[in-house]
Specification:
The chain has 2 helices and no strands. It is an all-alpha fold. It has a domain of about 35 residues.
């Protein structure tokens, strides 16, 4: 490749890149609204999943506490302690 061909290639690439970057790739107002709604829906879905997990774990912990308490009461009543 000669230096002239190389400079022409570089100029062509620069011109092509400038033309491509000058093209407006903005979304229309409806598309922007749809994207915002989709993001909001995803955020709500994530929050719902977190709430479900948190409440499930809380329920499991309470069930374990009640179960351990019941086992302890049964153990104590079977070994002669009156409550």
């Amino acid at each position: 490749m000669t230096p002239e061909e190389r400079s022409e290639l570089i100029e062509g690439l620069v011109t092509a890149l400038n033309e491509r970057s000058s093209v407006n790739h903005c979304l229309s107002e409806d598309e922007q609204r749809w994207v915002k709604i989709a993001i909001q829906k995803e955020a709500q879905s994530i929050e719902l999943r977190k709430a479900i997990i948190e409440k499930s774990l809380t329920g499991l912990i309470w069930a374990a506490i009640v179960g351990i308490g019941y086992i302890l009461l049964e153990f104590l009543s079977n070994h002669g302690f009156k409550l």
